[in-house]
Write a structure and sequence with these properties.
single chain; 365 residues; alpha/beta; nine-stranded mixed beta sheet; 9 helices; 31% helix; globular
């Protein structure tokens, strides 16, 4: 293990543990060391049940925005509600920002090249390398059971998780892939579909861990017919994967693995965990209590529904409203200033005059 990693591990282990809510969970913001990150490491958020013990690890991996300029604005908090669902089930959960995303160090490593000549294997392996580095460091913690690790990912993160299982690190026992893939520059477009299918086939040649693949009917990145070809190539070459054709979700089923989608995707996960003897708790831990915030009186029924989502959403966040009930809100931003500005901008679309009424979980001054 490089000296860089050893030194950084000491810092990682010394970080203060903060209560997530209701004393049922703890939450830590970490920098996980990795060579090539310029000393900054990988930005990581960890959530686990508060009770002392050693917990199996779930490592959640994000997707990649179509616009490169959006990568630095990504935060681990965007997956906080999903992470809580796994923590409720008795897992320690890490949300790891790979190189080039969020505030993680290093250059973006998952470039597959041009749309006319994509190298999907290179992209998949690069993403998997970041996950493997995080598992190696986090597995040294006394509260992590490194012999039981599950990789969960969406989109490019699902693709990286599938690649991780093709050359699995010690302790990896399963993969859950939500809408995994690469190379979709626009809705219903994929660069060289045949190469992406072939890459899934190549990954299946050496992958023998159980995996769950979930793709929604209205996924506008990787449509059901294409997703089934990924799965067919992967299993034909020896990979083990259960395919779930989920119903349509929202405007784009590619976002199924989201807070709004929990009621749909959680039963698939629970069955997969049970079928593979990975269930940790007979009863789920309760969710943290919602903040005691009162919805603005001018909101419509749809607005009040959105406000309930706001109450459940992670910081940093802001909610803005106009006198006619129009509203806008943003969550999982890097700062309260960012959240405030983006919520106002959304609310003021159409030349409305809006004001911010809540920032995080308190009334705005």
């Amino acid at each position: 293990m490089p000296n860089f990693r050893l030194a950084f591990t000491a810092m990682l282990m010394a970080l203060v543990i903060a209560p997530a809510a209701a004393q049922d969970y703890v939450r830590e913001e970490l920098r996980v060391p990795m060579d090539g990150t310029g000393g900054k490491g990988l930005e990581t958020l960890l959530i686990r049940p508060a009770e002392a013990g050693r917990y199996p690890l779930v490592i959640i991996s994000h997707g990649s925005p179509r616009k490169p300029k959006d990568r630095p604005d990504m935060t681990p908090a965007r997956f906080y509600p999903q992470a809580l669902e796994f923590a409720r089930r008795g897992f320690a959960v890490t949300l790891v920002m790979r190189r080039g995303f969020g505030t993680s160090g290093g250059n973006f490593a998952e470039d597959y090249g041009s749309c006319g000549d994509p190298n999907y294997t290179r992209s998949a392996r690069a993403g998997a390398a970041d996950l493997e580095a995080a598992i190696a460091v986090l597995g040294q913690r006394p509260d992590i059971d490194a012999s039981r690790v599950i990789a969960v990912g969406r989109s490019a993160g699902g693709f990286a998780s599938v690649a991780l299982a093709a050359d699995p690190p010690p302790g990896l026992v399963a993969v859950i892939n939500f809408a995994g893939g690469r190379g979709s520059p626009a809705d219903d477009e994929v660069c060289h579909r045949d190469r992406l299918i072939d890459t899934f086939g190549a990954l299946g040649k050496t992958s023998r861990l159980p995996s769950l693949w979930v793709y929604a009917a209205n996924d506008h990145y990787f449509a059901p017919d294409l997703a089934r070809k990924f799965h067919g190539a992967f299993t034909a070459s020896g990979g083990k994967a259960e395919f779930i054709a989920a119903p349509a979700f929202g405007k784009d089923g590619h976002q199924l693995f989201s807070a709004k989608g929990i009621a749909l995707w959680a039963p698939y996960v629970d069955k997969f965990l049970a079928d593979n003897h990975l269930t940790q708790r007979a009863e789920l831990l309760p969710l943290p209590p919602l903040p005691a915030l009162t919805a603005p009186s001018q909101l419509s029924a749809r607005g009040r529904e959105a406000f309930e989502e706001y109450r459940r959403a992670p910081a940093h966040k802001a909610f803005a409203v106009a006198s006619d009930g129009h509203f806008g809100w943003r969550t999982a931003r890097r700062s309260t200033q960012d959240a405030r500005g983006e919520a106002l901008k959304l609310c003021e679309a159409g030349a409305r005059s809006c004001r911010v009424v809540f920032i995080d979980d308190v009334p705005a001054p």
